[in-house]
Amino acid sequence: MIVKTVSNLDKEAWDNYVLSHPDGIAYQLFAWQEAVKKAYRFQPLYLMAQSKNQVKGVLPLIYFNIPFKRELISLPYCDAGGPLADDPATETILLRQALKIAPSAKVVIRSTRSFANLSPDKTLCKQKVRMILSLPKSSDKLLNSFKAKLRSQINKGYKNGLTSIIGSTNLLNDFYSVFSENMRDLGSPVHSREWIFSILKAYANRAHVSVVYMPDGQPAAAGIILCHPKVVSIPWASSLRRFNTSNPNMMLYWSFLKFAADKGYPEFDFGRSTPGEGTFRFKKQWGAEPEGLHWADFSATEFLMGRFNRAAPEPLTPNHVRIRPLAESVIQKMPLSFSKAFGNMTRRYVTL
């Protein structure tokens, strides 16, 4: 067994392994680190384990170097990355190699499952779950499986004259106009337009944008999906509050679910939610079921001694609890141009 740091020459072998692995997800594809490098300038450390010229495992990591913090994250800006290998022993070898290369860095792993023979009880994230919907072979079967109330909510958009289009970079401007305004209204720094463009370019035909339009042509809801043969993931979805009565958000999600079912994808990942909160209930109504996320962080010494911390989904210090509502209020009051500029300056430093 050898472990190597991969280069662009290894992209095909890397992606073939991720695409064929039963636990693979779109975030683990080579494209994620290409987008991170292009848009946010953080450098990757992508490790590959090989035996007899056969790939046995991969570990995608991004160096997250900012003042007073040095981390290797798998992966930033999404729910999950983590090691992917033929067996837990290979996952352990990959993690040890990462810690050997960067012994002073904290390693942060976000995974959809337990990994490297670490106790799943200790890595299981108690605050967040991912919401997974098993898809039938066609959108007709999927629609018929929904309760009458849900079908009525989907149909309301059509009755109100809304339309949806699925595309790619041709819809970037409309997507970003919805996305940036919604993030401002939520009080959250928005990803840069360059980041979204880099994702769409790097993922090519594995990334799709959907935009829902009002009858007068105004974009009212928009989202992006990333496709792996085993599961479709939706990292970003937004709708504008002023159009809520027309249900554009329901049409947006239906456009993606329809696409995924008709293309033969077996599962749809609605993304992470906090059990019991509004987004959790929204995803639950589609039939999605919660699955655990396994997040942990550790130093080289902690990993070798079998000690590690369960990584919180976001800082939960007393100062953070006090400051966050104030920060959200400030962003919400910004003109849209200001909130975009603020996001361009700050969002790259927020790892989720």
TrEMBL record:
<keyword id="KW-0133">Cell shape</keyword>
<feature type="domain" description="BioF2-like acetyltransferase">
    <location>
        <begin position="145"/>
        <end position="284"/>
    </location>
</feature>
<protein>
    <submittedName>
        <fullName>Putative methicillin resistance protein</fullName>
    </submittedName>
</protein>
<dbReference type="InterPro" id="IPR038740">
    <property type="entry name" value="BioF2-like_GNAT_dom"/>
</dbReference>
<dbReference type="GO" id="GO:0008360">
    <property type="term" value="P:regulation of cell shape"/>
</dbReference>
<dbReference type="GO" id="GO:0071555">
    <property type="term" value="P:cell wall organization"/>
</dbReference>
<dbReference type="InterPro" id="IPR016181">
    <property type="entry name" value="Acyl_CoA_acyltransferase"/>
</dbReference>
<keyword id="KW-0012">Acyltransferase</keyword>
<keyword id="KW-0961">Cell wall biogenesis/degradation</keyword>
<dbReference type="InterPro" id="IPR050644">
    <property type="entry name" value="PG_Glycine_Bridge_Synth"/>
</dbReference>
<dbReference type="InterPro" id="IPR003447">
    <property type="entry name" value="FEMABX"/>
</dbReference>
<comment type="similarity">
    <text>Belongs to the FemABX family.</text>
</comment>
<keyword id="KW-0808">Transferase</keyword>
<dbReference type="Pfam" id="PF13480">
    <property type="entry name" value="Acetyltransf_6"/>
</dbReference>
<dbReference type="GO" id="GO:0009252">
    <property type="term" value="P:peptidoglycan biosynthetic process"/>
</dbReference>
<dbReference type="GO" id="GO:0016755">
    <property type="term" value="F:aminoacyltransferase activity"/>
</dbReference>
<keyword id="KW-0573">Peptidoglycan synthesis</keyword>
